[in-house]
Write a structure and sequence with these properties.
- By secondary structure, the protein is mainly α.
- The chain is 67% helix and 1% strand.
- It folds into three domains: 142 residues, no CATH class; 80 residues; 153 residues, no CATH class.
- It has 19 helices and two strands.
- The radius of gyration is 31 Å and the shape is elongated.
- The model has no long low-confidence stretch (mean pLDDT 87).
C-alpha cells in the first residue's frame, strides 16, 4: 500500500531548487526565469511560518543549492513582505473577537518561538512579526479587560475571563456566569454550549491552558508553561462543566437580568459613602459584620445584588450562606422597613440612583421565602404605608449622623 505525503510550501521550494540545480547546465535561461518566478511566488504566498520553515534548511548539514541566493532576492522585497504579514494579522483580527484574537496571537507566538532563524532577512522578519504579535496581545487584552469590566453577557466573554483575571477570581466569575445561565436554560444546554466554546478556544490557542496576560508577562516564554498550575487548563474547565449537581442550587438573584441588578459604579453616585453607610447599617442595626469564612457581609451582599463584573466575586457557598443569614434578619418587618428607609435616604440625598426602580425586584428575590410581594415593597419605596413613613422618619437622624461621621473622617 502506498504512503502518500503532501509537501509543505517550504518543502516544495526545496524540491524546485534541487531540480533546478540538475538542469542548470542544460538550460541556464530557464533556471534563471524559474528562480525569479519562484521568489515572486514566495513573497505573495508565504505565511510567516512558511519563511521560518524554509529558513530551517540553512542549518548546518543542509546544503540546498542557491537557497542563500534566493533569500538575497527576497531580502530586496522585505518591506513588501512586512506589509503582507501585517495583512495576515489584520485578516485574523477582522474575523475574530478580542478574546479569540488574543488566543490566535498567543498560538502564533508559541509556534514562532519554536524556530531559531538563521538567515538575516528571516531574523528581521522574525523580530518584526514578534513585535506585531506582542503589540496585538497587550493592546487587545486591554480592550478585552475594559469590556469585561463594563459588560459580560455571553459564552465568549465567560471564556475570556481566564485571559484577564487571576485563576481563582476568573474561575469564580466563570462559575457565577454558569449559575445565571443554568437558571434560564438548564445545566444540559449550558454545559453543551460552554463545551463547544471551550473547544474553539483550545483550537485557537493550541495548548491545554489559558495564561492570564498582564503587562509583565506578555512578551515572555513563561506564559506557555504551567508548571505551578497558576493558569486554568481546559481539563479543569471540562471537569467543572461535568459536575452538574454543583449547579443545581441556584445562586441568589441568578434569575434576574443584568439590567435589573445594581452596577455600583453607575447606580451608586457616591460609591464610597454608600458602601460605608450600608456596612454601618448591617453592623449596627442587624448585628452582621463577617461571615464564618471571614468575609465582610456587606461585600458579599453587594456582590450578590450587583452585575457579575461590578463587584468582587465570591464562591457559591459564600453567596448562598450570606443570603440566608441576611434574609433571616430582613424577614422581620421593622428591620426590612429600616433598610428601605436607608435606601430612600441615599436616593433623596443623591448618593444613589435607581433605588425605587431596581431594589423592589432585587429585595423580593433576595429575601428568603419571598416574605414580601414586589407590589408591597414598591409601596414601601413610595411611602404609601404609615409603617414605612415611620421607619423613614426614625432612620433619618441616624442617617444624618453617619454623613457627619463620614465627612469628619474623610475631610
Amino acid at each position: 500500500m502506498y504512503k502518500i505525503e503532501f509537501q509543505s510550501k517550504a518543502e516544495q521550494v526545496i524540491t524546485i531548487l534541487n531540480e533546478a540545480t540538475l538542469r542548470s547546465e542544460i538550460d541556464k535561461e530557464l533556471v534563471t526565469y524559474l528562480f525569479i518566478s519562484l521568489s515572486d511566488t514566495i513573497v505573495k504566498e508565504f505565511s510567516f511560518l512558511d519563511y521560518l520553515e524554509l529558513d530551517e534548511y540553512l542549518d548546518e548539514g543542509n546544503e540546498v543549492p542557491d537557497l542563500g541566493l534566493l533569500f538575497d532576492v527576497i531580502n530586496d522585497r522585505v518591506s513588501e513582505i512586512k506589509n503582507l504579514l501585517d495583512r495576515e494579522i489584520i485578516k485574523a483580527k477582522i474575523s475574530l473577537n478580542e478574546g479569540d484574537y488574543v488566543l490566535f496571537l498567543l498560538n502564533r507566538k508559541r509556534e514562532s518561538l519554536a524556530f531559531k532563524p538563521n538567515y538575516e532577512v528571516v531574523k528581521s522578519l522574525y523580530e518584526y512579526y514578534l513585535l506585531e504579535i506582542h503589540s496585538g496581545i497587550i493592546r487587545n487584552k486591554s480592550v478585552l479587560q475594559n469590556h469585561l469590566n463594563q459588560e459580560f453577557s455571553n459564552d465568549s466573554d465567560a471564556m475570556n475571563l481566564f485571559l484577564v483575571y487571576p485563576k481563582v477570581e476568573a474561575l469564580t466569575r466563570y462559575e457565577n456566569y454558569i449559575f445565571k445561565q443554568v437558571a434560564k436554560y438548564g445545566i444540559e444546554t449550558v454545559a453543551q454550549n460552554l463545551h463547544v466554546r471551550m473547544g474553539r478556544a483550545q483550537d485557537l490557542i493550541g495548548q491545554n491552558h489559558i495564561p492570564q496576560i498582564n503587562h509583565l508577562n506578555y512578551m515572555k516564554e513563561e506564559i506557555f508553561a504551567n508548571e505551578s498550575g497558576e493558569y486554568i487548563t481546559f481539563d479543569e474547565i471540562s471537569d467543572l462543566l461535568k459536575d452538574q449537581n454543583y449547579f443545581k442550587e441556584v445562586l441568589p438573584l441568578s434569575r434576574l437580568e443584568e439590567s435589573e441588578l445594581i452596577h455600583p459604579d453607575k447606580d451608586f453616585i457616591d460609591k464610597k459613602f454608600t458602601l460605608f453607610l450600608l456596612e454601618s447599617f448591617f453592623r449596627e442595626k442587624l448585628g452582621l459584620v463577617s461571615d464564618q469564612y471571614g468575609n465582610k457581609i456587606i461585600d458579599v451582599f453587594i456582590s450578590s445584588i450587583s452585575t457579575p463584573n461590578a463587584a468582587h466575586a465570591f464562591k457559591k457557598h459564600v453567596l448562598i450562606d450570606a443570603q440566608r443569614l441576611i434574609s433571616k434578619h430582613l424577614t422581620k418587618l421593622p428591620d426590612f422597613q429600616n433598610l428601605v428607609g436607608i435606601l430612600w435616604h441615599l436616593n433623596d440625598h443623591e448618593f444613589t440612583r435607581n433605588a425605587s426602580s431596581k431594589f423592589p425586584k432585587i429585595l423580593v428575590h433576595y429575601v428568603s421565602t419571598h416574605a414580601y410581594t414586589e407590589s408591597t415593597i414598591e409601596q414601601y419605596f413610595k411611602r404609601e404605608t404609615p409603617g414605612m413613613k415611620r421607619a423613614k422618619d426614625e432612620t433619618q437622624i441616624w442617617f444624618l449622623e453617619k454623613i457627619a461621621q463620614y465627612n469628619a473622617v474623610n475631610q
